[in-house]
Amino acid sequence: MKNNLKERLTHSIPVRIGLPALLTLILFVTAIFFVILPALEESFLARKREMIRELTESAWSILATFEAWEREGVMSRRKAQAQAIEEIRNIRYGPEKKDYFWINDMQPRMVMHPYRSDLEGQDISNFQDPHGKRLFMAFVRVVREQGAGYVDYMWQWKDDPERIVPKLSYVKGFEPWQWIIGTGIYIEDVHAEIGLIRRKLSTISAAILLVVSLLAFYIIRQTLLAERMRKRSRDFVALLDHTPDFICIKDTAYRFTAASQAYAALTGHAHWEDLSGKTDFDVLPPDQAKASHELEKAVIENGQVLEHHEAPFAGADGMSRWMLSDKRPFYDLEGRLLGLISISKDISDRKKMETALKQSEEFLQGIINNSTAIIIAKDLKGRYILVNERFCETFEMSPDAVIGKTTHEIFPKESADFFRQHDLAVLESRETVQEEEFIEHKGLTFLSIKFPVFGVDGDPIAVCGIATDITYLKKTEAELRQARQEMTKFRTRTQIVDPDSDIRLQMGLLNTLQQQLGKELINYDMLRQTTGEGDPRVKQSEQRIAATRERIREEREKFGISRATADGQDYASVISEFENLSVNLEFAEQKYTAALTNFDVAQADAQRKSRYLAAFVRPTLPESAEYPRRIVVLGLAVLFITIAWSIMTLIFYALRDRR
Q: What is the third-level CATH fold of 1-235+625-659?
């Protein structure tokens, strides 16, 4: 009986006729609306882009002509530019003769615009369209980078300043005069022309589809009426035989009336028909049967619908599984309760994956929680999805108070705006960005490294940040800078580079004077012994001794309070101040060195742990030629051959079945 049902299902007339017809309709609609129309739209837009490029090249050649006359001395630059402006100002094209050219320079400043003469001579570097795009700066950027190119923006409709519409322009730089000339097309014009083509194709397609649909409907309707009930029976049996889900159907007395082959095998039966007339108590272990019966009582007696119920299940093979079950009542056409239907899925693998995922998350959280740096992750909307304990400790928040919230909900607006701009810049550049961030209300400074995390499709799914607290480093750096500035001010004020060297110099001079005094005293004693009182050499020796003693006294006074520096400060105070500044400078250097060492260690630790956050690196693709599009051509050929085959098959079976 089972094989007979499968054979009837295979040779069903509605399937043989309906499938080619349905395939024909699907392929035809797909070919028209998803292949032909997009290709026409792309080709039409490409022709429009080429048109404005060629028009701009033509207008550019006018400028080149006048510039050549200037170089040949035919006219001055001012006159050549004026005549070129007037000639281009009067050029119009398009169906209404309202399309035009304009000229601006590289500053940018408007040189000529036929419909916006109020801008001529004005600085338009900050001119923005309604979307905030600085379009003239975009023109300058394209010309500087490429020499010429396309730019899209919002602009007034021809000579109507009240109507702002999307526009696509081609601009080209004229280097001799530092000008930019351009013209554009209105996207609405393109859409209107494409829409006209689309309506014509849609009308033709609708007519063809109507004919094919009526023909297919007539043929299928003649056979469906007789096959409907039999098909339902075959489909139901095929569903029970082949579905991987564990399905069972019970009557109001909780007896099995039907079940899927998968459920029968799970409970140790060769075929689902072996379950007919049995209850859970005949099939399942007592505890499991009791739990299932209690759930099904609520469905049968109260009409409840039980959805997404997870419970363990022990099969006949002795393996323990997790099942996700839906149980709901079903009724006949008159609304009478017939029983319940239960559909279960084996979610053991999902449970294992959830456990593994949870362990992986705990492992990752454990790693980042032991980092000295702040580690965070945000989704594309700026909501926190991951923070470590260092973040919570620094900002005195719990993880539950942070996860799911945006930066603007946690930080002051100024800081939050800066963080968000930083995040968007990272997502846009798709590269790692390093920048200092200052938390004003906390008085903290961080060196932040942010990078995008990519999904399996190569698009960013989150932005991660690793921030190292450099507040202490900044503080020690400022202290070191201050100490060095104080030392510089001291040397400038006292005009003394190194007091130690100055002291050694003075001591050397004093020792020399002492030696000279000793020698002079000896000479004096020898003169007294060998000469009389009136000898002039004695008088001279006494004068030298007195002078030397006076010089020694003056040199000794320089080390006391009697000596003053260039700013009038006594020398002892200067020495004391210098020693104090030297100690402060040395201490500041040691603190800065220690802070810098700690910073390098924290940076190395953060970089090592950032590997766990970078789940996917976006691959790059080599360049490839766009034409010829062999796959598209081959696909279209196969499509039309299939359509022809489907129509011929439809006609053949229709004629054969009519006999």
A: Beta-Lactamase (3.30.450)
Distance of alpha carbon 558 from alpha carbon 100, whole angstroms: 89
Phi, psi of 35 (to 5 degrees): -120, -60
For the cut 50, the answer to whether the pLDDT of residue 241 exceeds it is yes
Bridge-based pairing state of the strands 256-259 and 246-251 = antiparallel
Is pLDDT of 622 > 50? no
Report the pLDDT value the prediction gives residue 417, as an integer from 0 to 100. Answer: 85
Q: Compute the half-sphere exposure of residue 595: CA atoms within 13 Å on the CB side of its CA.
A: 19
170 C-beta neighbours (distance < 10 Å), count: 23
Report pLDDT for 230: 64
CA 138 to chain centre: 23
Distances (CA, A) of 296 to 304, 314, 324, 336: 9, 18, 15, 17
Angle between helices 13-30 and 630-658 (to 10 degrees): 150
Q: Long-range CB contacts (< 8 A, 24+ apart) of 457-461? A: 458/616, 458/618, 458/619, 460/380, 460/427, 460/430, 461/379, 461/380
Pick the CATH number of 243-346 from 3.40.630.30, 3.30.450.20, 2.30.40.10, 3.30.1360.120: 3.30.450.20
**Nearest one of 178, 189, 176, 169 to 101, comparing CA atoms:** 169
Residue ranges with strand state E in 263-361 = 306-314, 320-331, 337-346
The answer to whether 376 and 403 have CB atoms below 8 angstroms apart is no
In this prediction, residue 173 has a pLDDT band, given cuts at 50, 70 and 90, of very high
Read off the pLDDT of each residue in 490-497 and give the average, rounded to a whole number: 64
Yes or no: domain 363-475 corresponds to CATH 3.40.50.720:
no
Is the bond leading into 176 cis (omega within 30 degrees of zero)? no
Residue scoring higher pLDDT (425 or 554):
425
Quote the CA–CA distance of 268 and 317 in Å, as a whole number: 7
**Residues 318-357: tens digit of each pLDDT:** 778 888 888 889 887 778 888 888 888 888 888 888 787 7
Tokens 């040779």 locate to 11
The answer to whether 1-235+625-659 and 243-346 have equal CATH topology is yes
Give per-residue pLDDT as tens, 188-213.
777 777 777 777 777 777 777 777 77
Are the C-beta atoms of residues 449 and 373 closer than 8 Å to each other?
no
How confident is the prediction for the chain on average, in pLDDT?
Answer: 77
9 pLDDT band, cuts 50/70/90, is very low
Domain ranges of the chain: 1-235+625-659, 243-346, 363-475, 483-592
pTM score over 0.85:
no
Give the angle 43-45-51 at the CA atoms, nearest 5°.
Answer: 105
